[in-house]
Design the sequence.
């Protein structure tokens, strides 16, 4: 059933969000389905599109690491599945309206 499949796919993405290859295409291979079906499943069952969902998970983890570690931002980008610091920085600014470094400074200085 589709809500069970949605939960399995959601769990898989949460467990594997650090994979820079994470995509609907990869999910289609893993779940022996097709990418457009999985895309619809995300929209219908989770009320969010796949790329927004993946980005949301990655950003949650990035923010946690920015505040709780001294890890360089480029290393955080790598650890959460971005293959380039620049694409991570752009995504972070799109979501938070500030850079990862500014976010870290704000959170630490209170």
Sequence:
């Amino acid at each position: 059933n589709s809500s069970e499949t949605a939960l399995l796919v959601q769990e898989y993405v949460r467990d594997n969000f650090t994979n820079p290859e994470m995509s609907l295409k990869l999910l289609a291979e893993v779940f022996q389905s097709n990418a457009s079906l999985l895309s619809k499943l995300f929209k219908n069952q989770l009320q969010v599109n796949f790329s927004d969902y993946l980005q949301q998970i990655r950003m949650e983890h990035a923010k946690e690491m920015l505040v709780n570690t001294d890890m360089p931002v480029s290393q955080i980008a790598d650890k959460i599945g971005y293959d380039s610091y620049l694409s991570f920085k752009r995504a972070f600014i799109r979501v938070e309206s500030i850079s990862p470094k500014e976010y870290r400074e704000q959170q630490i200085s209170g």
